Amino acid sequence: MNETNPAAGPDRYSPEHIRLPLRRAGIDTYRQPVLYLREGCLVCRAEGFAALTRVKVTCGGREIVAILNVVTGDWLGPCEAALSDAAWQALAPQPGALAGFAHADPPESAGVLRAKVFGERLDEPRFAAVLRDVMTARLSDIELAAFVTACAGDRMDLDESVALTRAMIEVGERLDWGPGPVLDKHCVGGLPGNRTTPIVVSIVAALGHRVPKTSSRAITSPAGTADVMATMTNVDLESDTLRVVVEREGGCLASGGRMRLSPADDILIQIERPLDFDSDGQMVASILSKKVAAGSTHVLIDIPVGITAKIRTPAAADAIARRLAFVGEAVGLRVGVRYSDGSQPVGRGIGPALEAHDVLAVLRGIPYAPADLRERALDIAGAVLELLPGVAQGAGRAQAAAVLASGAALHKFMAICNAQGGFREPGVARFVRPLLAASSGTIACINNRQLARVAKLAGAPRDAAAGLVCTLREGDRVQRGDPLLVVHAESPGELAYALEYAHAHPDILTIAGEY
Amino acid sequence: MNETNPAAGPDRYSPEHIRLPLRRAGIDTYRQPVLYLREGCLVCRAEGFAALTRVKVTCGGREIVAILNVVTGDWLGPCEAALSDAAWQALAPQPGALAGFAHADPPESAGVLRAKVFGERLDEPRFAAVLRDVMTARLSDIELAAFVTACAGDRMDLDESVALTRAMIEVGERLDWGPGPVLDKHCVGGLPGNRTTPIVVSIVAALGHRVPKTSSRAITSPAGTADVMATMTNVDLESDTLRVVVEREGGCLASGGRMRLSPADDILIQIERPLDFDSDGQMVASILSKKVAAGSTHVLIDIPVGITAKIRTPAAADAIARRLAFVGEAVGLRVGVRYSDGSQPVGRGIGPALEAHDVLAVLRGIPYAPADLRERALDIAGAVLELLPGVAQGAGRAQAAAVLASGAALHKFMAICNAQGGFREPGVARFVRPLLAASSGTIACINNRQLARVAKLAGAPRDAAAGLVCTLREGDRVQRGDPLLVVHAESPGELAYALEYAHAHPDILTIAGEY
Asked: Which residues form the Pyrimidine nucleoside phosphorylase C-terminal domain (chains A, B) (predicted)?
């Protein structure tokens, strides 16, 4: 019984009918789509738009939601509109195509977000509503930050972790490898040089198991496994190619970038990273959703524990391990967890090519290969194998050691690289210089985070050969003038900059003892 | 005992020494300072900057922290840098001045933010650390959203509300009116047309009390008190002028925009608004910090309660009232709270000039003046007066009614306007058209939020004369063809757009009954 009169008449009119031609602004605003309109233009006045208004832009049957930046200079005219790179990519208009502009509707999941902030527990459909809006950029970065915060700390119980994991799987693609075990491993990050994955995958695949490994590029670290592998072979495989590689060799060492496995997680991570809240609930959903989407059935999670690692205490490791086991069982994954020493780096090199050299040395059985990297890789490969039914405790490690020693693992690694497009030796940097010890004594402590920062300042992972080499470990003795670490860089500027930072932070490698 | 060798040598070098000339980008990014650098420029490469990196920009002894947008088009050269309007204002460089660029240090309060997210209670110094970083734009919008979320719902106890209120007062300026009571009133918003403030201030000042009222412009509503007063007099007073007005007339009706009272709150509100979390803790800190900063001693808070008002239930109103009383006492304010009917609009007009006409009608004692606005203003003025020692219950309202009836309140209002720069009659809109009832029956329900939206679509508050007039109230009978409301606009387009929206939302005024 609710009815009112239409606003009929000759001047019936909607500002949505005002259309402006689109052009590229030539501005990279990362993943946030931005719309640029001239101050005081007809659209701004008709709609009451101001800077940061969320605007629905429609063009050629597609629509996006963009944040408005108001142009006060004259690089944009009053009768045109410009889009940031992210917005242009998402809307994909023809240059000069006419677009319509309107206030964006509040996202469907605004109520869900609000409920979580006010302490309600969310189920899978409500998490899925949030993630759908995440995927279509209907939630602003501010709203994503609110969601991440509302789920941080102890505000997500185990059932919610399961629901979030399932919702993350739901919104992405999913690989299916048919019946039988599909093995995988994952490290809860934070330890420079800890590049066991290529070795573990080669060992496990050499033993005839399926291990279709996709890895990420570095986000905040000096190298991700995909960066390291990219110094030796092609890692950017389309799903079809990846499937061929795995069918032929049992395993692959590819980048997960093109796979769209748990893509909502990729977006949330971009918000979680600057906030750095280390939420167990989200970390577990992030890890396990990607594993399920990748078609894995058995996953070994390596958790390095150490004061400058990501997980700092055994209690924190236990809490994550419990959550991993609970959620893993709920989503049908066999999850094994292994704690490892997270107090100092692993191997010698830190940076894509330098870590690749370490990996190759281990696979090739070269005498000077870093023993800590080899032992860790064998431990992890053994633990992966022991997830399988019928493999006894200890038997997995023995199998792993045998295929590494026999050269079968090296052979498998080369075969995988060849299947992915061919193997090449990783490069070396143009400029190399050591940082020398200013005093004599014993290495008391190594700061993983600062060591990673030196490698990044030297140019890693952008410059594949950049980074550093550090062979010292806690308890090693050094004499004044001994090299503490060696910086590798592709430009003298970056070399000096990294060394300057290292010099300004003497607790990267703390020397205790006589002068 | 920690020492390492300096990276001495001829190529010693720091990217902070690379300086680029600054120019204005001519882009309004609201309050977020944005730095624009060309993709692949020397600074980006040397520092490893990417889109959204937080960059410290230094120039002429000043520094700001800005978010980086990477320019991929050719409007910016590789050897120059551009700043958004907010960044340019904050850094205030000479055009072409050379600036340095470095990674911004993590904000001092990042740890505090993290602690709050993980459930710790914050004290005043820790809230103050956050607010200092808010003021200097060292916290990004993402971090502000995390802070707002971490304090939302029931996550801020009463002591924290006190600490946050004190910290907010601390970071801003504070007016001092000398000894004796300084009166004020505040409405917890959400009710269109509820423009009692000019009437209440005129009554209270006419009775010889001090009431230095500063009000805000509309944020999400069709009009704020400052918008309404701006249709009749000058409201943008510097503090010196404001002081002269108050000394002469006892009261003022100015905009708080230039006062820098609780300025951190002004920034937080910009984040809270799109999130719309209605956090009691932050709302109380926001209201009371501004009152203390304005030098008030006695404050009456009006809380309209209604299903489409900001506060929807009596229980929610009680919770806010308790918190207001507790925090008020802790910061030395005498706080009175009054609940009022929030189910439907007050007065007839919605929009700056239309509300001003209602205010003038009440002050002038015109017979057709809206009785509901007059009664509410008298109730509130009475309650303000009864906060004073020696004024009995009911006596305040009687005093208020007397000065309104005698014309003394009108006289005081005109005197205040004259002191602020002169009185003028509010304008009228060029285009006016009614929305007609499509059926006969009884008004069952009025939706405040949608009514406000119609007024905004008509152009309020940007166009001062725009908005709507609605004289109907719940229970009123209408015949098919009667006007339900009348839209006022300055352009035919906006007139039609507002009516079109109203037609599409028949539950703005729900008519129950026969056809």
From this structure: 442-509
What is the SS3 assignment for B235? Answer: coil
Q: Which of A1, A112, A431 to mutate: most B Cβ within 10 Å?
A: A1
Which CATH number does the domain housing residue A457 bear?
A: 3.90.1170.30
Residue A9 maps to a domain: no
Q: Are residues A467 and A493 in the same domain?
A: yes
Residue A510 DSSP SS3 = strand
**B249 lies in the same domain as B329:** yes
- Residue range A93-113: average pLDDT? 88
What is the reported pTM? Answer: 0.83
Q: Are residues A369 and A244 in the same domain?
A: yes
Same structural domain, A189 and A58: no
Last residue of a domain, one of B368, B398, B420: B420
Domain total of chain A: 4
CB contact under 8 A, A142 and B275: yes
Residue A191: pLDDT band (50, 70, 90) is confident
Are B198 and B322 members of one domain?
yes
Contacts of A492 in chain B (CB under 8 A): 11, 13
The DSSP string of B295-354 is T-SEEEEEEEE-TTSSB-SHHHHHHHHHHHHHHHHHTT-EEEEEEEE-SS--SSEESHHH
Write down the catalytic residue from A278, A318, A341, A482.
A278
Among residues A400, A420, A440, which one ends one of the domains?
A420
Say yes or no to pLDDT of B92 above 80.
yes
Domain of B348, CATH number, reads: 3.40.1030.10
Q: Report how far residue B355's alpha carbon sits from residue B228's, in angstroms, rounded to the nearest whole number.
A: 7
Question: What percentage of chain B's residues is helix, strand, coil (to nearest 5)?
Answer: 40, 20, 40
Task: Say what percent of chain B tops pLDDT 90.
Answer: 67
Note the ipTM here: 0.81
Domain containing A131 equals 110-170
pLDDT digits (tens, 9 = 90+) for B129-157: 999 998 887 888 889 999 999 998 888 99
Whether residue A253 is contained in a domain is answered as yes
The chain A residue lying nearest B512, using CA atoms, is A1
pLDDT at B496 over 80: yes
Same domain, B326 and B410: yes
Comparing A14-18, A507-511, B23-27, the range with the smallest average pLDDT is A14-18
Strand bridging mode A54-59 / B98-103: unpaired
Residue A13 pLDDT level (bands cut at 50, 70, 90): very low
* Minimum-distance CB partner of B2 among A27, A45, A510: A510
Residue B105 has pLDDT above 80, yes or no: no
Q: Inter-chain contact B145–A145, Cβ cutoff 8 Å? A: yes
Query: Which among A48, A275, A438 is the nearest to B142, CB-wise?
Result: A275
Q: Are residues B214 and B299 in the same domain?
A: yes
CB pairs under 8 A between A and B: 250
pLDDT at residue A2, as a whole number: 37
* Cβ atoms of A195 and A373 closer than 8 Å: yes
Which is nearest to B477 in space by CA: B507, B506, B443?
B443
**pLDDT mean over B80-85:** 94
Average pLDDT score over residue span A31-58: 83
For residues A93 and A80, what is the distance between their CA atoms, to the nearest angstrom? 14
Average pLDDT (B296-304) is 96
Q: Do B324 and B392 sit in the same domain of this protein?
A: yes
pLDDT at A258 over 80: no
Quick check: helix, strand or coil at residue B100? strand
In B, which residues are within 8 Å of A54 by CB distance? 274
Contact B13 A506 (CB under 8 A): no
A376-397 confidence digits (pLDDT tens): 999 999 999 999 999 999 999 9
Is A278 annotated as catalytic? yes
Distance in angstroms (rounded) separating the CA atoms of residues A232 and B39 = 28
Per-residue three-class SS string for B342-392: CCCCCCCEECHHHHHHHHHHHHHCCCCCCHHHHHHHHHHHHHHHCCCCCCC
